[in-house]
Amino acid sequence: MNLEAGFRFIIFLALFGLTNYLMMQKRYEKDLKKRKIIQKNRIAVLYPKGTFISV
After folding, report:
1. Looking at the chain, which terminus has fewer C-beta neighbours within 10 angstroms, N or C?
2. Per-residue pLDDT of the chain (55 residues; tens, 9 = 90+)
C-alpha cells in the first residue's frame, strides 16, 4: 500500500509541476509581448508622424 501511495504522490507532484510550468510560461509570453508593445510605442514617440519610419 505504501508503494502505491508513493507512486500516486510522485504522479501528483509531476502533474502539479507541469501545470505550474505551463501557467508561468503563458504569463512570461504575455509579459514579453506587452513589453515589446510598450517599447515600440516609446520609440514611435521619438519620430514625428509622416516620416519614413513606421512602427
Report:
1. N
2. 699 999 999 999 999 999 999 999 999 999 999 999 999 888 888 877 777 665 5
